[in-house]
Amino acid sequence: MAATAQPLILDHAVIGVLDELDAAAAVYRKLGFTLTPRGYHTLGSINHLAVFGENYLELLGFPQENDRKRADLWSYPVGLNGLAFRTTDAAALQGELGKAGKSVTEWRDFSRPVDVGGTEKSASFRTFQLGKEAISNGRFFFCQHNTPDLVCQPADQHHPNGVLDIVDVFIVSRAPQAITELLGGFPNTAAPRVNDEGIAIQVGIVTIHIISEERAAARFGKAIPQHFEGRERKVALGLKVRSLKTTADVLAAGGQPALPFEDGLFVDAKAANGVALWFKE
Fold it and tell me: Based on the domain organization, do 141 and 181 belong to the same domain?
């Protein structure tokens, strides 16, 4: 039985960069991403976004002079440490999931200023976490965009590397059932697919892959983060591109090493701020 009528849809993936946002932004521009101007959240964090058609990437950190705020950010490892799912009503969803027995935090509001044609406007959000105690090395959370037009502007959605959307998330897990239970009970998610590769959960256009340490080593080798404490670590993203040739040319021009991998190109986690990137058509 569904816990809510709201669907489970990936809104954005968070790459934590601690107090190195300038360096991380430079890396991602060389990888061919168009980044939004720096955002300053009222909670104390700062960010840049790479906005796609259905979702986006967020480089999230904090100013070097302001590390007393958002202590949760620097308690997580550098790299892919957050998955944000979209909601149109965070307060209602938080209540429904809580009644269904899922662990949820209280929701909170925050905002950041956005320049739109020389006029400052306020992009505002409401978020809450899912399974805070069950998830290691980061978080699952829901994000309500009160002003989505201020976050996803068409001018920001054209990337030299041709990326169109995030289509895969890879999580190395020692307790996959904890994740499947958290992500169960939504009307648009079928039963997880289980095979030799691990567990796959379809979330709209995105497939969340939950794989063992052994399978991760066999498939990705040392191209993904290797060691972690706790139950799991988010290690890689699959990115759908318009043209692999265009992607290869842009990566080469930026001096970013990419290796052929299955049906695409792979950038090592060490070269992409702690998360491996798999570009594919």
Answer: no
